[in-house]
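Hey team,

Filing this mostly as a record. A colleague (T.K.) asked me to run one chain through the structure pipeline before their review meeting, and I want the input and output archived in the tracker in case anyone asks later how it was produced. No errors, nothing strange. Just documentation.

Input sequence:
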Amino acid sequence: MNKREVDQWLERYVEAWKTYDREQIAPLFTEDISYRYHPYDEPIVGRDAVVDSWLGEVDQPGASTRDEPGTYDATYRAVAVDGDVAVATGSTSYSSAPGGPTSSTFDNCFVMRFDSSGRCSEFAEWYVERPAAGS
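Output structure:
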């Protein structure tokens, strides 16, 4: 993987999240993906399990709930790529209603491993909520 390929994968990741479309989520990951919403979580193992978790179809410890369309957006970019391992940072913003003002922003760091076809085989996320302005 190179930086451009990782950035393209991240764009597909955001688009898949925005659509909650199983057919867009599944191709991002290998059949045996090990996925962590937080670095200390036990991983979710397997593409179908990750897709089900993203879609809110299973009660997965550590997983967030499904977001209402139009209430979130995100931008992530690769900051380091070493062979099949990549680190990306970016931010995610949420509003309380579609098209409304931003109510919270999170800064994210992803650590990912990819297979030779560009599918993610390991994923772990770190994130922290930005303090409100004036805090």
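Quick notes for T.K.: The chain has a mean pLDDT of 92. Residues 3-128 form a domain with the Nuclear Transport Factor 2; Chain: A, fold (CATH 3.10.450.50).
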